[in-house]
Amino acid sequence: MARRVSKRKMPDRDKFRVKERWKIEEGVFDNRTMMNISRVFTHGIASEMLHIISKGKEADVYLANSGAKVKEAHVVLKIFNQENTSFRRRAEYVKGDPRFDGIRADIRSIVKIWCRKEYGNLKIAAAAGVNVPEPYYFSGNVLAMQFIGSGDEPARILKDFYLSNPEIVLDGILEGMKKLYKAGLVHGDMSEYNILIEKDIPFIIDIGQGVSLMHPKANEFLARDVKNILNYFKKEYMIDRNAEGAVAEIKG
Ligand SMILES: Nc1ncnc2c1ncn2[C@@H]1O[C@H](COP(=O)(O)OP(=O)(O)O)[C@@H](O)[C@H]1O
Ligand SMILES: [Mg+2]
Question: Which residue segment(s) compose the domain that 57 sits in?
Fold first, then answer.
């Protein structure tokens, strides 16, 4: 939850920290990314980069100490790779979405839209009561959000976690998908890789490709999402649920 906690402003200290980190991270991030990270700092969201949590094809995820405007100790920065050409295939998700009509489709623009889209989708999901990381801020290719984990230990993905109460967790995931659908969104990339388990609560993450229900493939994506999740729970926990029934329940 973002809030102003500090009465005393610390512009000099903040600036110094950004500069210090700048030196350390020089060469790791390109200039544009550095500029976007420094905006996250100056907006009081983060105060210090700590370490990388996940290296992905399209984005790296970093743990950072939070800034004065964030109540919790840590925040997560998801930094999208500006050079990555695999964003080309993502144009499909952006083009069919009426929210992004008439937008340029070069790689850097797509990456920026992607980051903004993930931020927007997280906002919608959080407002609808879905368990997702709360989005705090975005700038260009950098998205700042709530850290899901305890201490500085990130929550594990569903795939790497043995559940003692799989039925309850599965219900929670389907319930989250239903709330998301009611809020007008389909995730589009649901799997055991994009769910974090923290204190037995499933958190849905990686929602950049989420599409509005007006997207021509929204129903197809929803059916695929449900299938992915049910297949996983069948394979790992021998829970057998009917996919059509689950989709109908989500659609209400
Ligand atoms: N808010 C978060 N809190 C804790 N860990 C996170 C958070 N967001 C992402 N991660 C970690 O980073 C990994 C990659 O994030 P994700 O959004 O799925 O990006 P991608 O799959 O595109 O690389 C996740 O599997 C998870 O381990
Ligand atoms: Mg992912």
Answer: 11-150
